[in-house]
Amino acid sequence: MMVSFGCGMSALAYALSAATETAVHASRSLRGRAQVMFPDGWHLREALDLVIAYLLAVPIGLDREREDRSAGLRTFPLVALASCGFMQAGGASLMDNADATSRVIQGLTTGIGFIGAGAIIRQGGRVHGTATAAGLWVTGAIGCAVALHAYAVAIVLSLATIVTLSGLQLVKKDREPPAR
C-alpha cells in the first residue's frame, strides 16, 4: 500500500506534537503545586505519561496494520504502554538509582526482543518481519523515554519510525528471491 507524504504526514506530525505539548504543559503546570490525584492514588503526571506513550505508538501500529504485518494496531501501543508502565512501577526508587533503571531497561529490551523474534519469519531464502521487530523495539524505547520524561526523544523516535517504515518503503525495491 502506498502512503502519501503530502499533507498526511505533516498533519500526523502536527497532531502528535500538539497532543504531546498539551500533556507536557499540563504535567509541568503541576510542578511545585499539590499534585492532582485520581481516586486510586495515581498522580495525573503518571497517567498522562501512559497516555502519551500510547498515543505516540498508535501511528506506528497503524502503519504496520495497513501493511498487514504480524504485529499492528494493538501490539505497538501496548508495548509502549507496558514499557512506560514498567518504568513507572519502580517509582521514585527506580528514578533515583541509575543501576536499577538500567536493569529495568535491559529487561524490557530483552523481553521486547523476544516479542520481535516472533514477528520474524523465514520463507525459503527470504526473511520477513525484521522491520516490524525493529519497530517493536523502538516502540519500547518510546515508552521508556516517556517514563523518563524525555518527551523530545520519544517524539523523535516516533516520527523517525513512521518515516522509516512508511516513507522508506516507497524507495525500497521489491526484489525477487535469488535463483537457486
TrEMBL record:
Family, per entry: Belongs to the MgtC/SapB family.
Domain MgtC/SapB/SrpB/YhiD N-terminal: 50-172
Localization of this protein: Cell inner membrane; Cell membrane
Positions of transmembrane segments: 74-92, 104-121, 128-148
Protein name as catalogued: Protein MgtC
UniProtKB keywords: Cell inner membrane, Cell membrane, Membrane, Transmembrane, Transmembrane helix
Pfam families: MgtC
Main localization category: membrane
Organism: Teichococcus globiformis
Its membrane topology: Multi-pass membrane protein
Annotated PANTHER family: MAGNESIUM TRANSPORTER YHID-RELATED, PROTEIN MGTC
